[in-house]
Design brief:
alpha+beta, Alpha-Beta Plaits, two-stranded antiparallel ribbon, 6 strands, about 10% strand
Length: about 160
């Protein structure tokens, strides 16, 4: 699979803002002042480098083709939607129509994120009721999860 982040040497002006802002030092410059390079295994996908790059030399990998393949695979697919999705599609006044439109793409299950949050909250309740002096990270932010998986792998088996 291609790296999540790509740095274009054609667009890059060698300002190295991406190198300085990367919280996990996943971008470096070789000796001799070359173009910034990415270490894919270190990248946690936070997007800081994309935000800071004024020339738009840093970009995310598109997953459009992968999504099309998944939709055409016949596999069962679940989608979790953010509550803010209704603001994006303000012309759709009935959420049932919206769910029907999504299912027409080949999606099997459509739920709002709060459904998953309820499931996680129930699991947290059982963990906290059986505390035994352990501590848990309760963030579901993919960047936090990626950071822990890559930089604190000993904590991985302690997740839900």
């Amino acid at each position: 699979m291609k790296p999540l982040v790509n740095i274009s040497s054609q667009e890059c002006t060698k300002c190295y803002a991406c190198v300085r802002i990367c919280p996990v030092k996943a971008i470096y410059v070789s000796t001799g002042g070359g173009f910034p390079e990415l270490v894919p295994g270190r990248c946690i996908g936070c997007g800081s480098c994309i935000t800071i790059c004024n020339t738009r030399a840093v970009s995310y990998r598109s997953s459009l083709e992968e999504a099309k393949q998944l939709l055409g695979s016949g596999e069962k697919i679940a989608v979790l939607l953010s509550p803010s999705i209704s603001a994006e599609f303000d012309d759709i006044s009935d959420h049932r129509k919206f769910v029907t439109m999504i299912k027409a793409l080949g999606i099997t299950w459509v739920n709002e994120v709060s459904f998953a949050v309820d499931m996680i909250a129930y699991r947290y309740l059982s963990l906290l009721n059986d505390f035994k002096g352990r501590y848990y990270i309760t963030a579901n932010d993919p960047i936090v999860v990626s950071y822990i998986e890559k930089y604190h792998p000993s904590c991985k088996n302690k997740f839900l």
